[in-house]
C-alpha cells in the first residue's frame, strides 16, 4: 500500500473514495465537511438525506462510516465518518482510530483501490495533529487492526495546513510533498 502525505484541497484529488470528516447529521457543516458538500453539489446532500431517512435516522455515531455517491467530485464515493469531539469530552483515541478503520473497511467493501483522508478530528473537534496522525498510523501501519485491506493500493492524507502536514510527515516518516 502506497501512503502519501500532502497539503492541499481534498475535493480536488482523483481517488476512488474521499473521506469526509462529517458531523453526525451528515447534512453538511463547516471545515472539510462544508468544503466537500460545496464541491460535490446538491447530489451529495440528497444522498446524505437518503441515508438519514433509511439506515441512520438518528445520525451517524462517532467512529462509524457510511458511503454515498460523490456528486460532482472527481471521486466515485464519499465515505463519511464522524470523529469523536474532544472539545465535548469525547477523548477516546480508539474511537478516533475507528474512524480510519471503518473508512478503510467501507472503501474495500465498495471496491475502492485509492482513498484520500483529511485530518479527521483535527479541526473544530479539537484533536491535536499528532493525535490524529498517530491514530491513522496505528490503524494503517502498526497493524493494530486485524484487517488488511487487500484491494486498497493507495492511501493519501490530504491536509489543510503546513503544521498538520509536517506532523503527518513525521509520524509516517515521509518527506513532505
From TrEMBL:
What GO terms are given for molecular function?
Answer: O-acetyl-ADP-ribose deacetylase activity
Under Enzyme Commission nomenclature, its number is 3.1.1.106
**Gene3D superfamilies in alphabetical order:** Leucine Aminopeptidase, subunit E, domain 1
Q: What class of enzyme is it?
A: hydrolase
Q: Which Pfam families match?
A: Macro
Question: Which stretches are annotated as coiled coil?
Answer: none
UniProt domain Macro: residue ranges:
1-176
Query: Sorted alphabetically, which InterPro entries does this protein's record hold?
Result: Macro_dom, Macro_dom-like
What keywords tag this UniProt record?
Hydrolase
- Kindly provide the name given to this protein in its UniProt entry: O-acetyl-ADP-ribose deacetylase (Regulator of RNase III)
Species, as recorded:
Brevibacterium epidermidis
Amino acid at each position: 500500500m502506497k501512503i502519501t502525505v500532502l497539503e492541499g484541497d481534498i475535493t480536488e484529488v482523483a481517488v476512488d473514495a474521499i473521506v469526509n470528516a462529517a458531523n453526525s447529521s451528515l447534512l453538511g457543516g463547516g471545515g472539510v465537511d462544508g468544503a466537500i458538500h460545496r464541491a460535490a453539489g446538491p447530489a451529495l446532500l440528497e444522498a446524505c438525506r437518503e441515508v438519514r431517512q433509511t439506515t441512520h435516522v438518528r445520525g451517524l455515531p462517532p467512529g462509524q462510516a457510511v458511503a454515498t455517491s460523490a456528486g460532482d467530485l472527481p471521486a466515485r464515493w464519499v465515505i463519511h465518518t464522524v470523529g469523536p469531539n474532544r472539545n465535548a469530552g469525547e477523548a477516546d483515541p480508539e474511537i478516533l482510530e475507528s474512524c480510519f478503520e471503518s473508512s478503510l473497511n467501507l472503501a474495500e467493501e465498495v471496491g475502492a483501490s485509492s482513498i484520500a483522508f483529511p485530518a479527521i478530528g483535527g479541526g473544530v473537534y479539537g484533536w491535536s495533529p499528532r493525535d490524529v496522525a498517530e491514530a491513522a498510523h496505528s490503524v494503517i501501519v502498526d497493524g493494530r487492526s486485524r484487517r488488511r485491506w487487500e484491494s486498497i493500493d493507495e492511501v493519501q492524507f490530504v491536509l489543510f495546513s503546513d503544521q498538520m502536514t509536517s506532523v503527518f510527515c513525521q509520524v509516517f516518516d515521509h518527506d513532505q510533498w
